[in-house]
Amino acid sequence: MILIDASGLTATRPNRPLFAGVSLTISDGDRVGVVGLNGCGKSTLLRMLGRELAPEAGEVRWGRGARIGFLTQQPQLPEGTVRDAVGAGWEGEAMLDRLGMAALIDARTDELSGGQAKRVALARLLVGEYEALILDEPTNHLDLDAIKFLEEWLAAYRGGLVLVTHDRHVLDRVTTKVLEIDRGTAYVHMPATRHAGSGYAAYLAGRAEREERAEVAEQVRKNLAVRELAWLRRGAPARTAKPKARIATATALVNGRPQAAARQGDLALSMGSQRLGSKGIEVSDVRFAWPDGSPVLARVSVAFEPGDRVGIVGPNGAGKSTLLNLVAGRLTPSAGEIERGATVKIGYFDQLSSGLDPAQRVREAVAGDKGEPSLADVILMKRFWFDGDAQFAPISTLSGGERRRLQLLLTLVEQPNVLLLDEPTNDLDVDTLRALETALDNFPGCAVVISHDRWFLDRIATHVLAFEGDSQVRWFEGNFSEYEAWRHKELGSSADQPHRIKYKPLAR
Ligand SMILES: Nc1ncnc2c1ncn2[C@@H]1O[C@H](COP(=O)(O)OP(=O)(O)OP(=O)(O)O)[C@@H](O)[C@H]1O
Ligand SMILES: [Mg+2]
Prior knowledge:
The protein is an alpha/beta fold. Among the domains are: 2-205, Rossmann fold; 281-345 and 415-500, Rossmann fold (3-Layer(aba) Sandwich). The chain has 16 helices and 18 strands. It has helices at 42-49, 82-86, 90-98, 114-127, 144-156, 168-174, 199-232, 236-240, 244-255, 320-328, 362-367, 375-383, 400-412, 430-442, 454-460, 480-493, and strands at residues 2-13, 16-27, 31-36, 57-62, 68-71, 132-136, 160-164, 177-182, 185-189, 281-289, 295-304, 309-313, 335-340, 346-349, 418-422, 446-450, 463-467, 473-476. Strands 5-6-7-3-8-9 form a six-stranded mixed beta sheet, with helices on both faces. Strands 14-15-16-12-17-18 form a six-stranded mixed beta sheet, with helices on both faces. α3 (90-98) crosses α4 (114-127) and α7 (199-232) crosses α9. The N and C termini lie far apart (63 Å). The site of adenosine-5'-triphosphate has 21 residues, from α1 and α13.
C-alpha cells in the first residue's frame, strides 16, 4: 500500500533555493534514509511529508486512513507527566525503560532536558499505532544500548519509515532506500534487489559513481573546449565563414564550468591552542550527589593527561555530563578533589547548545562583547562555512547541525588545550564529523569526549572511560572496539563485579 506519495516538492529560503522537484513514494516496508549536508533541507522535507508544512510547489498525498507519526528534530511534548505522554499501559512504561527514561516516568514534561524530551517523544511514537513513521535524528541523546534497540526495532518495522540520521551504523542496518539531497537535487538510491545490501551501501556506491561521471564529463568538456578554441582562433578571415551556431556552442564550451562544490573549501576546525604543560587534570576520589541526596558519582579517580583522547561512554543518566561539569568547574564535588594543571585552559561544549541565544544573529554571537565582528571574525566565520548571508541568519532559524557548528566555533576560538565535549556529534553531517575527527587527531592538548557514536569513538578515542552502573566508572586502556570486545567476554564469563573495578593509577 502506498502511504506517502510526494511529487515535485520545492522549497526556497531567503536568497537561495533549498531543493526543487523532489519526488518520493513510500509504501509498506520501505525504510528511507534521508541524507545530505547540514542545512540542505532535510528537516524541511520531512515537515512537508509529515503534514507540518505546505510545499511551495508540488504535492504530497497520503494513503487513505494512513496514520503518520512524526518525530521532529526538537520535539514538543504535551503538558502533563511523562506517563501521560506515553499512555498509561505497560507498553509505554517498557518503552521508556528501553530508552533510558524509566526513572522519570512521573516527571512533568516541561521540566525535561531537550535530550530527555526527545527520548520521551520517541517512546510515545514507538508505542503508538502508525502506518508510517517520520523520524528526524531519532538517535540524538540516546545511549548505545538504546540506539541498538532502536536499530533492531526499526529494522523489523513493517510500516513505512522516513528517517534522518547521521549514524552510519543505523543507516546501514535499517534503510532499504536512501534519498540524498545534494545542491538542491534529490537522488534516490536503492539496492538492485531487496537482498542486495542496504540503502546506505547503494547510496555510497551511487554517489561515488555520480562523482566519477561528473569528473569524466568535465574532462570531455575541457578537451572539446581546447579543440574548439583552436578552431575559433584560426584566423580572422576564416571566422566570417564560421557558422554562428558552432561559434555559440564553442563559446558555451569554453565558458562552461564544472558544478560548483557544495561548500567553499574545507571546514577548518584547527585553531591552535595554548601550550599544555605536563600536568592535565586529576580527579581524586570525587563523589557527587544532588542536593536531594541522590548519588551520581561514588569515588571516581581519573587523570586526564596531555595527549589523551578519552571517550566517555555509558547509559543515559549515569553521570557522564555531571563528571564533565565537575572537571570543567561548573559543579563542585560533594567530596574529593579536582586539580587542574597551571597551564590548563578548558574549552567546554555542552550537550544542548544552551549557550546560544536564539535571538542573536550568527555574527553577533561570534563578535561577542565587541558588538561588530572584526575582520578576523569574518574570516573565522568563513572557515566554519558561515559565509555571506549565513552570517546574518538569526540563530533561531539555523538548522540543528548549523547550530552545532556555530557552537564548535565558539568553543574552539578561545584556543583551549583541554577540550571537554559533551555529545558533539549530534546533528553533525558526515563531512563535518570527518573534519572534527581530523581536528581532534591533530589537537595537541587533551580531549575528553562523551559520545554514543560507535564510528566516531573508534576513530578518535585512545582510552575509554566507561560508566558501568552503581555510580562507578572504569578506565580502559584501549580503544572502543577493544573495550566492547573485552566487556563482552567479561560479561559472558562472570557478572559485573563492582569490587573488581580498576581505577586508573594517578601516576603513570
Ligand atoms: N524560518 C527560517 N528562515 C530562514 N531560513 C531558515 C528558516 N528555517 C530554516 N532555515 C534555513 O533553511 C535551511 C534548511 O534547514 P533544515 O532544517 O531543513 O536543514 P537540515 O537539512 O534539516 O539540516 P540539519 O542536518 O542541520 O538538521 C537551513 O540553512 C536553515 O538555516
Ligand atoms: Mg534537520
